[in-house]
Amino acid sequence: MEPVELLHMSVFSQSFSPCGRFLAAGNSYGEIGLFSLAAALSPDATAANQKPVLTFTAHKGPVFSLLSNDCVLLSAGNGEISAWSWTELTKKNVKPLWTKRPNYKSGLEIPEINSMVLNPQDNSLVVGAGDNNVHVLDLEHGVFKTVLQGHTDYVHCVCVREREAELLSGSEDGAVRMWDSRTGQCVHCIEVYKYESCARPQYGKWISCVTTDSDWMLCGGGPSLSLWHLRSLSPTSMFPLSGCQRQAAFHQDKILAVGEGAFVSHCLLGGEVKAQIPCTPSSLNTLQLNSNSSEHRVLTVGGSSSHVDVFTNLSYRAFSLSF
Amino acid sequence: MGAVTDDEVIRKRLLIDGDGAGDDRRINLLLKSFTKWCNSPGTPEEGFTQYQRMLGTLAQCEFSMGKTLMVYDMNLREMENYEKIYSNIEQNIMSAHEKITECKKEIQRAKRIRKNRQEYDALAKVIQQHPDRHETLKQLEALDKELQQLSHIKENMDAKLELRKKQFHVLLTTIQELQQTLENDEKSDNDDPSQESPMENSE
Questions:
Q1: Residue B193: inside a domain
Q2: Which of A6, A319, B127, B168 could form a disulfide with A306 if both were Cys (CB 3.0 to 4.6 A apart)?
Q3: Percent of the residues in chain A that have a pLDDT greater than 70, as a whole number
Q4: Is the confidence at residue A22, as pLDDT, over 80?
């Protein structure tokens, strides 16, 4: 790869293999790089172990979303979803299992797919697409069974609320919508920018990250990152982070958030920012915790750089993998 | 084969000899002096001195043997001591490992508790913003009372209005009847002029 290309590369998405030993990272050139975590974390790792074991072009546009289930890696690119078998990828065989495209109404533009999430209850894939809709693909039959309409601008992020069988989606129009996964009706619509405590009109009203652990929801983007209690639909705490957050996660008793700014923010549920750990990329797009393997429990972050930072201990950056 | 064992023997002898050079030589000397003493034709005094000298050498040999035995005993005991210390340390390591796992579990529990406490705090903050339930209930009660009073007043007014209406109605019907009677009388007066004056007088 040319140095210029490396300089302008951004990592948009990451996913760990089901065994937890490999990390797949998708970048802005449509490539997916497969890194061997087992090799990079072993005591006698060298600089060569921090390079990908396999890089292949998956899509024509940037790979905005990567997802793994028990045996398959799903990647979303320019309006289409491809599935790759993990066992085949570890053998360096880069033929996709299938490629599907949701039914888009408008024929001219191909909307990009910003985010996907698996709904384990009915084995379906929830896809947030650029045509303002959320499409649900049944993985058993391979058919798109529902389209959730309601947003007035493209969908940035989706997540699943397992206990209540609901789907949440955050979009550019500033609304977080909650859909019943069985009937497909929009149950609630929260317009975050209308709440004075969260709104930051200087950044806009778009919501770029939504994550939930069934009782609580974190959402942020234009408005500041805030913690919501879902039963009462009220915002409980605001996190005073400068810049817009692109991904957030609940981890034990803390909240990890990444976004604009070359650091990972650790915050407590009460709203205080406990620590900001510096990283290599100047702004971060994706954050993933490896929960598939007990010996490679790491946090990896990627952003506007060709490096993916690996944290073995959450308090400091251990090393970086690079394309 | 013989050469190997010879070499070994020589090696072993060289190794041990460093320490026992004096002892080995002493024993050989003792044997030689014993045979010489047995076969010596010298005077009984010389024989006696030689005998004493041999006893001395024998005592020396016994002494060094005793020393070596004691050193051997000491080494054995030191080994035992070290074994004991070794197993002690191993046990300590095991218990330290267990303590570490216990503490890790404690940490997980404490983190969960902290998370629950923070969630509780966050919800409590939101709840505090809403007004107190007692106050709202009191306000509701006061409003209820007012409402009751007002409806009471309204009922009274309605009743009064009804009464007045009825009274007016009675009055108006009486007046109308009187008017009717007067008109009828006027008509009957026009037919019968002789009965006008008594009619006018009765009005």
A1: no
A2: A6
A3: 100
A4: yes
Strand segments (E) across A18-154: 22-27, 31-36, 54-57, 65-68, 72-76, 81-85, 98-100, 113-119, 124-129, 134-138, 143-148
Residue B21 and residue B87 in one domain: yes
Provide the residue range defining the domain that includes B149. Answer: 135-181
CA atoms within 13 A on the CB side of B44: 0
CATH of the domain at A28: 2.40.128
In the predicted model, is pLDDT for residue B23 greater than 80? no
CATH number at residue A134: 2.130.10.10
pTM above 0.80, yes or no: no
CB-nearest to B115 from A232, A237, A269 is A269
Enumerate the residues of chain A whose CB falls inside 8 A of the CB of residue B130.
none
For residue A227, how many other CB atoms are within 10 A of its CB?
25
Cβ within 8 Å, pair A270-B123: no
Residues of B with CB under 8 A from a CB of A: 108, 111-112, 114-115, 118-119, 121-123, 125-126
pLDDT of amino acid B57: 87
Please report the pLDDT score of residue A50 as a whole number: 87
| Count of the separate structural domains present in chain B | 2
